[in-house]
Amino acid sequence: MKIPFVKPSITELEYEAVLSALKTDAIGGNGKICAQVQKYLADYLHVKYALLTTSCTHALEMAMIVLGIGPGDEVILPSFAFVTAATAIVRQGATPVFAEIDEHTFNIDPDDVIQRITPRTKAIIVVHYAGMGCEMAKLLSIAESHNLFLVEDAAQALGATYMGQPLGTLGHIGCYSFHSTKNVVAGEGGAFVTNIEKIGQRAEIIREKGTNRALFLRGEVDKYTWVDIGSSYVMSDLLAALLSVQLHRLDEITQARRKIWWHYYDHMADMEANERVIRPGLDPQANHNGHIYAFCVAAKQRDALLSYLQAHGVGATFHFVPLHSSPYGIKYLNYEAADLPITERVSASLIRLPLYPELTLNEADYVLTVLERGLQNLLHSGVD
User: Fold this and answer.
1) Neighbours of 34 (CB within 10 A)
2) Strand, coil or helix: what is 337?
3) Residue 384: is its pLDDT beyond 70?
4) 150-171: string of b/e by CB count within 10 Å (b at 16+)?
5) Residue range 52-72: mean pLDDT, rounded
6) CA-CA distance, 59 to 192, in Å (whole number)?
7) Of 185, 203, 289, 356, which cross-links 7 as Cys (Cβ 3.0–4.6 Å)?
8) How far apart, in Å, are the Cα atoms of 218 and each of 30, 36, 204, 214, 362?
9) In the chain, what are the domain boundaries?
């Protein structure tokens, strides 16, 4: 059996939507279809502003620009994150300050965040790893008490909630991804959301190359012109057509992914009881979206177990190389691997299993069978 790590859920409805956009020449940026999708997303998330972007990377860059992050500023974020959370900071001439993660949920540790706040700290970026919400009550309290902006990197988190509220909508700004590996896809794409009028108004301008074109499109001005810094961050209507169908299927997709996630979790209980694996931690306040099923094994077993899984047709993989111990982090930010031992330990021991809506329970059982055999193989070969 050959089981890929991820596969987007595409139906005839997506094909029809894209073909319709092509037939009506709806292929440019930020047109009628984008406007419709933005309204749907804003209503779904209960936010005032939902702006489609070309990627979550660009949404994060917009966030740093809108918040006025610049030289001399520090922004705290987890080292266990995709690189664009850090590059969005560096592009503004500011300094990323890496914080530890919780060893069980793989999310940023609020207590460690407090230790890294200085007079230069201006913002915190939290990453909702695997669609499992960070401890937002604590983080919001920290941000408020220190007068800091809180940005949610919710690239993996659409369809998930914390304390009943959609992830990405609790902080000042939320950033989403619609990359082909995410739960809801547009091939490439993202979104910038906020409930704060001042932030939303400036984000509209920055996204449209520094012009007030958004006002023009709504008929609020008779022409548009250059009014601020910015870049071309708008999504095309062609991708928005695909995204529109995907968003309407979000609940269906999330339910299917959660079913597989819980199947893995429940059936790995004995493996954990026998101290062969550590299942992902659960936060009772967080309702995840089944984006990633990640667990940990002994670091010295991880690569051998991955090789075994892959050799038997299971497209399992590792995840983030910590940003603080990356070549850039060491050379330009003066970090060492030992600076964040929990992050290093998680990175060296984490495995992600295949997970996508069309994965059947029979296929998931095959994954679990191969995993169990791989663990037994390591035990018998003395890799313990």
Assistant:
1) 25
2) helix
3) no
4) bbbbbbbbbbbbbeeebbbbbb
5) 98
6) 5
7) 356
8) 12, 13, 12, 6, 51
9) 12-248, 250-381
Taking the CB of residue 214, how many other CB atoms lie within 10 A of it?
A: 21
Q: Fill in the amino acid letter for 239.
A: L
Q: Please count the other Cβ atoms lying within 10 Å of the Cβ belonging to residue 1.
A: 11
pTM over cut 0.70: yes
Q: Which tens digits make up the pLDDT trace of 334-363?
A: 999 999 999 999 999 999 999 999 999 999
Q: Which phi and psi (to 5°) does residue 372 adopt? A: -60, -45
- Six token digits for residue 161: 């909630």
CATH of domain 250-381: 3.90.1150.10
Helix, strand, or coil here: 159?
A: coil
Q: How far apart are CA 148 and CA 173, in angstroms?
A: 12
Please name which of 180, 182, 157, 179 lies closest in space to residue 167, comparing C-alpha atoms: 157
Question: CA-CA distance, 66 to 63, in Å (whole number)?
Answer: 5
Confidence band of 383 (pLDDT split at 50, 70, 90): low
CATH topology for 12-248 is Aspartate Aminotransferase; domain 2 (3.40.640)
Q: For residue 137, how many other CB atoms are within 10 A of its CB? A: 13
